[in-house]
Amino acid sequence: MREVVRNGKFVELTYKVRDSRTGHVLTRVEFPLGYVHGHNEILAPSVHMQLEGRSAGDVIEVPIDGNQIFGPRDESLVFSDRIENVPEEYRQVGTSILMENDRGQTRSFLVTQVDDEMLTVDGNNPLSGRQIVFTLEILTVRDATAEEMKTGGAAGAGPDVDPALMRAV
């Protein structure tokens, strides 16, 4: 009998996130991502719900409305500045910049465009305002060890994954 995903089970999976309008793959996790189901919510709750009752070898697709999870795009969070006003270490598309407003609140901005004269940053979550589809492949489902239950995931395995990215999806 195959193990099924439920609370207390160690689950390893890979996934990709695709924009349902354009079909473009927005992000992909090919190295198995391991977590303890019900103890470490690493993906959106609606994705975790769809994993319940599934087994190793299952591939599922979960449509997500980015507006519901991340809100609609806010164009006031997109701005440009002359390139000479921006430190050189931030002049590359994909660079994340943590900025603070006059009330001490911080927000992460992503450099989205750079040319010879201007640099543009965007403070929206990259998935806000999009209709996306998660395609998940479940690789492993088994009882979690005591150490995995304590840490919420694989003990000492795999690369570090940026928690901000994980919360984004």
Q: What does this protein look like?
A:
The protein is mostly beta strands and 169 residues long. It folds into two domains: 9-69 and 128-151, Chitinase A, domain 3 (Roll); 74-122, Beta Barrel (Thrombin, subunit H), CATH 2.40.10.330. It is 14% helix and 40% strand. The protein is built from four helices and eight strands. The strands form two sheets. The protein has a four-stranded antiparallel sheet. The model is unreliable at 158-169 (pLDDT under 50).
CATH topology description of the largest domain: Chitinase A, domain 3
- N-end to C-end Cα span: 31 Å
Mean pLDDT: 87
- State the share of residues found in helices, binned by percent: 10-25%
Order of helices and strands: EEHEHEEEEEHH
Q: Order of strands side by side in the largest beta sheet?
A: 2-1-8-3
Outline the biggest β-sheet.
4 strands, antiparallel
The residue ranges in which pLDDT falls below 50 over 5 or more consecutive positions are 158-169
Kindly provide the radius of gyration, computed on alpha-carbon positions and rounded to a whole number of angstroms: 19 Å
CATH class categorisation of the largest domain: Alpha Beta
